[in-house]
Design goal:
single chain, mainly beta, eight-stranded mixed sheet, 2 helices, 10 strands
Length: 200
């Protein structure tokens, strides 16, 4: 039987992008299972506060105490704006992890499920911001399929088809911490955002 691997073609009209990568040569052929090949087009990382409260610890009141934080925002895993992510999302988010350099949530998840009541320990008096948050990741991906064509007496041909683009969101593990106005923290970090939220 003759097997031909055809040149890649676009299946649908799509905005021109110069930054996507076609699947590796040899991916599409008799051995291909039919599942899509994903490529991440863009990823943007934003530190995001999800829960916060301000608290004044007066002299003589240090030690452990339980406090309940207020939700200020939320981040969820989404594909195309929908929180109903399919099983294929795991493969997409795995590639997102590689692109951004840290592990992200790869199944349906939301910061809304985080516990807001927590035990805190204070060793010094001061005006504190208590926070929970994460690094939200958003961007766009594209996907390809390997199509098989029966050419009759000429054999079988395969070609790679780029099917379209879609958006996604996901997030890093949850960070929990405290910050005071006098603390020196790097700009662009979650603690920096918490200090701004504190009103410093």
């Amino acid at each position: 039987m003759t097997v031909l691997i055809l040149l890649s073609t676009l299946a649908i009209a799509a905005p021109a992008r110069a930054d996507f990568i076609w699947p590796p040569r040899g991916w599409c052929g008799p051995h291909t299972t039919g599942g899509p090949w994903y490529e991440i087009l863009a990823s943007e990382v934003n530190p995001t506060l999800t829960h916060f409260m301000s608290l004044n610890i007066a002299p003589g009141t240090t030690g452990e105490r339980t406090e309940t934080l207020t939700k200020v925002s939320s981040v969820s895993t989404t594909i195309g704006g929908s929180v109903e992510v399919s099983s294929s999302a795991g493969a997409i988010f795995t590639k997102v992890s590689v692109k951004v350099g840290f592990s992200v949530q790869n199944t349906r998840a939301s910061t809304d499920t985080e516990t807001t009541s927590m035990r805190w320990s204070f060793n010094e008096p001061g005006y504190y911001g208590l926070y929970k948050g994460t690094r939200a990741v958003s961007g766009e991906y594209t996907w390809f399929r390997c199509l098989r064509h029966d050419l009759g007496p000429l054999g079988v041909a395969y070609n790679v088809v780029r099917e379209g683009t879609q958006t996604y969101t996901t997030f890093d593990n949850i960070e929990v911490g405290t910050v005071r106005c006098g603390d020196v923290v790097p700009m662009g970090t979650l603690r920096f955002k918490a200090r701004l939220q504190l009103g410093c």
